[in-house]
Amino acid sequence: MIHVSGLRKVYGTGVVALDGVDLDVREGEIFGVLGQSGAGKSTLLRCVNLLERPTSGTVTVAGQELTSLDLAGLRRARQGIGMIHQHFALLSSRTVAGNVAFPLEVAGVPRRERGARVGELLELVGLQGKASAYPAQLSGGQKQRVGIARALAARPKVLLSDEATSALDPGTTQSILALLKRLNEELGLTILLITHEMHVIKSVCDSAAIMRDGRVEESGTVAELIARPGSLLTREIFPLPEPAPPGSVTVTFAGQSGEPVVSSLVRKFDVDVDILGGSLEELAGVPVGRLRVRLEGRNSAEALAYLRERGLILEEAR
Ligand code: ADP
Ligand code: MG
């Protein structure tokens, strides 16, 4: 749905914000880009709808190469791409309804049609009854709901989100993430979101990329990344002290549930299992995590081979 290839952005100041970024976002998925401040995330997002003109590289959204369009073509294509922001970017002198109607006015939608569409949108985001409130009278979560309703006014297929939950408290963040997930499912909306918060990736994303210094360091579905030995995402989700102590083995479990692995090791191989640390969670209902152990005994090598056979991912520190 979104295909970014060889994207570079060098600002006039000489800052290389994007240094050859490739990204593939599939239709109907929620794709999260994780990275620290200054990694180039916002620049990437602004290049996806060409608010920022990339220095080189191509951006294709819904089969249309945006980087080759003229201004009129681009304006039309942008109707299919909504965007929400960390600080909501609402017009303070307009009511909730006025804010949501704004893009419809710009697109020349007749008044009556606008009114009906605004009503639908407010209901979609759970803000019925707030139509005539002003932004200053709303909580942060309600403001972001207005931002989402406005972004969806023109029925886009793609929604871009730049740290949309970063200004919100944890409870409100979860409710906005739940709303994005529902819109993704009900409308088939493809969502590209950027965040510096791991838990956002963990709670709603199907796929993820990790950015650093203008480059994508790894990307793929969350399941693929967790199953990839040494993946940065796995280390971020399941932090353990690094570097691992020599002689230890870090075992990543990705869904091999219900197996009493540790007790089988002890029984079958007569080894001692010293547990050094662990971090476990449920992702999409599946227990996933990392366990760091040290095995002592003559049959340690066989025991490790047994774990590998069971599909566990092993990282041995020497
Ligand atoms: P992130 O969103 O990951 O924090 P940004 O894309 O905002 O990262 O910034 C990436 C780099 O580009 C930073 O070094 C930043 O200072 C620089 N940068 C961002 N926007 C501009 C701009 N308009 N002009 C010059 N440099 C910029
Ligand atoms: Mg940013």
CATH topology of the largest domain: Rossmann fold
Query: How big is the Rg?
Result: 23 Å
Bound molecules: adenosine-5'-diphosphate, magnesium ion
Total number of domains: 2
What structural category characterises the helix and strand content? Answer: alpha/beta
The neighbouring-strand order within the major sheet is 6-7-8-3-9-10
Instruction: Please give the share of residues in helix.
Output: 25-40%
Unreliable stretches covering 5 or more consecutive residues: none
How many DSSP-defined strands? 14
> Helical element count?
11
Largest sheet: 6 strands, mixed
Query: Taking all residues together, what is the mean pLDDT?
Result: 92
CATH class of the largest domain: Alpha Beta
The helix-strand sequence is EEEHEEHEHHHEHEHEEHHEHEEHE
C-alpha termini separation = 43 Å
CATH hierarchy: architecture of the largest domain? 3-Layer(aba) Sandwich
Supply the CATH superfamily name of the largest domain: P-loop containing nucleotide triphosphate hydrolases
Morphology: elongated
